[in-house]
Amino acid sequence: MPVVVLIGMLDAQGPEYAWIRDRLEAAGTEVMLVDTGTQGPPGATPDITREEVALAAGADLDGTGPEDDRIRTMARGAAEITGRLLRAGRLHGVLAIGGPGSAVPTTAMRALPAGVPKLMVSSMAADDPSAFVGVPGLTLMYSVVDIAGVTGVSSRVLASAAAAIAGLATGYAAGRPGTAGGPPIVAATAAGATAPGVGAARELLDILGYDVLAFHGTAAYEAAAGGGRLAAALDATLLDLSAELLGGLRPAAPGRLTAAVRAGLPQVVAPGGLDMAEFAPGHEPGRRVHLVEDGAVLLRTTPLEAAELGRRVAARLRDAAAPTALHIPLRGLSALGAPGGPFHDPVADEALFTALREGLDGSLVEVREMDANLNDPAFGRAMADHLHTMITRVPVIRAAS
After folding, report:
1. Which residues of 378-388 are buried (b: 16+ CB within 10 A; e: fewer)?
2. Phi and psi, residue 300, nearest 5°
3. Model-level pTM?
4. Which end of the chain has less Cβ packing within 10 Å, N or C?
5. What contacts 24+ positions apart, CB below 8 Å, involve 292-297?
6. Quick one: which H or E segment has residue 121?
7. Local confidence band at 400 (pLDDT 50, 70, 90 cut-offs)
């Protein structure tokens, strides 16, 4: 039977949580109700009390001290409790309801791995949700009204939320990703500029029996790389580092290129997309640009910028202790940078490659160079082959491209 964990302040919304619990049990799920209240007595009977939640955070909930401190304690404790339940096979989905207090349950949800169903029903969803959502796959549902009692409107919202998490938890329980006996998981970064090359790598990895998770958002990729569930990583899309350097759209997340290193994860890296940075429409500061379909502007990185990017990439990779390789495509970092393309610039490319070679000299990172464009199928297959060898120490014999 799937288990849904409800996280809530039962002093404020006890009757609402009790109503949701009844709906979930009627839908065929087991329910674990976790109390994170810090004020009055709970309005529903919890399965895990607020005192147990505080204890999981290493604190004693005695009702004294600033409210902010108690809320942070409950957030830490809820994250610890849900982690324990997941490891014990007693969590297949998480649901919470709230308003400004959404920070407590979403802290616990964000601590769970990507793929675990997480649903937050909140009146805060109409505002900027970035503080609540995070990167591991949390779903935010607008409550339409403040959740104060089970009324005509709120009952329909809460019933929909209960039905949604019951279905998600049932599916998760039936085939949990990443469990023992499943295929080894590889995380890969991909974007339009690198899609053909990464796609060729992914095709070979699929044939070899890997479950390849492709990430467009690098914050989610870094979270996955540091989450302890991957066999290896294929990071061939680094244009967010160009955006970080030049102030473009979608810059690199904090800690970019470091999670796999810290986690001791085998990885293959390629400088895909470092020949460009994306800007909003109308940004054309007197340099080589390329317009894309949605009106955005791609700027070609200069030799000085390319060299700085090479130094940054090398600095973040050179301390890797697990098997790590950098694959350099000598015929360009994207389709635009291929010979004859609008961003073809051998001088800038060589400035990048030189900085990478010098920055990784003397490290344990293996540097491989190939007379190909990053998006050539042969280059993608070479990355996949090398990654497979790192994991199994058995190279793949591939047909000629």
Report:
1. ebbbbbbbbbb
2. -80, 130
3. 0.69
4. N
5. 296/249
6. strand 118-122
7. very low
